[in-house]
Amino acid sequence: MKRLGGEVLTTENAREFSSTAKGETLEDSIRTVEGYLDIIVMRHFESGATRRAAMTANIPVINTGDGPGQHPSQALLDVYTIEREIGKLDGIKVALIGDLANGRKVRSLAYLLAKYNDVKIYFVSLEVVKMKVCVAPGFRF
Asked: Which of 56, 71, 77, 116 is in the most buried spot, having the most CB atoms within 10 Å?
């Protein structure tokens, strides 16, 4: 961003040091900061917060991590890397391995890969950390 001539407005720990800690709503905070910005790139501890911000803001909001929910920017990078390395996305087979119950990155990647044709996604984990059906509706386990 800085190399392109832009500037960054950051918060170290908004949960502890911002007006939110004093009771201001996320929506009020977004209305305040959007006056200084052209785009909001947001990582938030609360699931669904980025969607709320996008519904409130009159400028674009990019989700870079949404509580335990989603991490779509990482999924976009992963899909880009897969396409660059394999040369295609349609018809691939992918295994997502590890803590699938709490992994927002794998959840976002699964949603994105499911948009392509004939992609097979294998969810591999211990029973205690398997992806919950309610988290991945439409997927067969």
From this structure: 71
CATH number of the structural domain 2-66: 3.40.50.1370
Residue type, 21: A
Question: Other CB atoms closer than 10 Å to residue 1's CB: what's the count?
Answer: 9
pTM of the model: 0.73
Residue 68 amino acid letter: P
Ranges of residues in the chain whose predicted pLDDT is under 70: 14-15, 17-18, 133-141
Q: Hey, how many other C-beta atoms are within 10 angstroms of the C-beta on 102?
A: 12
Asked if residue 61 lies in contact with residue 53, where contact means CB atoms within 8 angstroms, the answer is yes
- Sorted by where each begins, the domain ranges of the chain are 2-66, 88-129
Determine the pLDDT at residue 141.
54
Is the torsion defined by CA of 49, 44, 111, 132 positive or negative?
negative
